[in-house]
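Two records follow; treat each independently.
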Amino acid sequence: MASLSTDVPRQTPVRAYLILATGVAAVTLAAIFIKLAQAQGVPSLFIAAARLAIAAVILTPITLRRHWRDIRGLKRRDLMLALLAGFFLALHFATWIQSFEYTTVLVSVVLVTTSPLWIAIAEITLLRAKLGGLLIIGLVIGITGSMIVAIPPDGIIELGNAPLTGSLLALTGGIMVAAYLLIGRSLRTHLPLLPYIWLVYSCAALILMIFVELSGISIVGYPAESYLWLLALALIPQLIGHTSFNYALRYFSATYTSISIELEPVLSAIIAYFLFSEIPNTLQIIGSGIILVGVTLASLAQARSSN
């Protein structure tokens, strides 16, 4: 992956920031939809596969109608990288969603959102990218805030019924999404959005459906409500959320894009307050504020680099 480009365009349009913010808001709902589907007895692997399969099916007629020439004209290298991104995306969802069965949502989210750290390390060591000091400071502050949010109010850590397994799955999910974003950053500088996400989502969906088949998991027989949550998961966090991130990768570094996703725990807490009357504790409020500071610093660094 040493040949992947991380150059950032000189001028970043305002719409790129707005679309990235929309994506962050959309993926915030993912954990809620996943937990609601799991409560209906839907296996985690099928949730991951359905999320991507539905998105791919919706994108197929639109993409083939508008971008058939772009798809036929893809270079072999670009096609292979897009399929590789799909492979990493499939592993991300397979491991992260599965981690909910073994550990708490909070621990899982904190570990999966360590992706900015892995991206920064890869961009510096493998891609020879030079990250500004302010961006690195924002990265460290954002991850610190996430760790504070994860601290239980009573000081007793309840990690679930298989903490090591759950933590390893979530951490693997964070590493996989880092690889997915890095590849996307390289391709989105010259590849149109729709062909890219169609290839990636379709490849990931195919891989996960193969896993579902090999695991002997049924795709029918679940309550009707569960399929509505799967549809919502595909439409909002996937088609709106992840597609917004892939759009933003044309203008932002993978590190900055992933740092922005650190806002997810903050927005999740706000949604939980209104939907479930869950009042955040003092540490969660402090941690959320620290995350906002980290993202703000990273945003300032991004704005300076694009001027």
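The next record belongs to a different protein.
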Amino acid sequence: MTDNGGRPDTAEVAPAGLRDLVIYFAKLGAVGFGGPAALVGYMRRDLVEQRRTLDEDTYNLSLALAQIMPGPLAAQTAMAIGYFQGGILGATLVGVAFILPSFLMVLALSIAYVAFGGLPWMQALFYGVGAAVISIIAVAAYRLGVGTNKRDPLLWGVFAALFGATVWSGAELAVLFVLAGLIVALVRAWPGATRGLALMAVCAVGAALIWLLERSLVQAGTTEGDAHVLLQILLFFTKAGAFVFGSGLAIIPFLREGVVHEFGWLNEQQFLDAVAVALVTPGPVVITVAFIGYLVAGVAGAVLAAVGIFLPVYFFTILPAPWFKRHRDNRQLRAFVSGTTAAASGAIAGAVVLLAQRAIVDLPTAVIALAGLALLWRYRVREPYLVAGAGVAGLILWPIVGG
């Protein structure tokens, strides 16, 4: 049931136990394709709309925290949900459950990659999978936008602005999430002149800090000297994890600069293979670091790379989450959260356009994307089946059109 505004009736929500939540996120990490945009959409669809084990306010609060703090979007949203439902233990168990399946898959692919001298079929597989992923993200973006913005013209205005900004800039601009939240908070929950100015000042400082962190992501150097390679891996990926905003795809240029040009751990082809591995496996995109770590230093390198990338994400979740939880009924915070959630839905829709430009490169990939859209929309085919079918199509078509 929904109320008149299309919002799920939170009175009917029966919160899931921690065990059920951990099992859900382990499954999502094992079969959740489509990257961060699709993954956060699945969380809303499954937990808020279908299972009704999470209320919409908690979901929006989790998504807002993930948007305005450093950290890859899907993993941080999952950890935030775990925290709000089960405290630090919940955040820890949910985070591990969500990350571990994709880590093990990437580790297995890494071992095969080294053993067989590369994965020449990866390009063919991603030819089909990449196109199908666009349809998955498009449907997820639509459902997230409709579910969060409903019939609110202000929120749809924020959606449109972030959609345009993302397409125009080619990136997810974290500063705009803060600005969107501030605008909605001031319009919907004006606190008075004094508190309003204070709120604007706090948001300005926060936006400035985010901007500085993003600049640091572009300009940061890597560790120098003759330190042990395992320590270098841990430090480098910890620093990388501290500077990721929004989609895990945002970290790819930084990783390339470090692992290819600064350290020389991988060549260009190996790095492209690492990105492909992340895109054709379920779970968080930044798990590609495990592939890189394995190529550099085996299993220990893979483990330390994964620990490094997710450790800052974990602390950037559990440290501010108590404040978010304590003030969740505050009018200004609720309005701020609704603004950042609308911004997130717009940015995710914009990401569909950006990713489509890279994945839909000819008529066959356009057909795969449109077929995927029809199967998801009309027949509600489960995403893993769609990805598997698209992968088979890619393996068949690539030798003809691209090989």
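Discussion point: Confidence is low (pLDDT under 50) at residues 1-8, 217-227. How would you locate this feature using only the token line?
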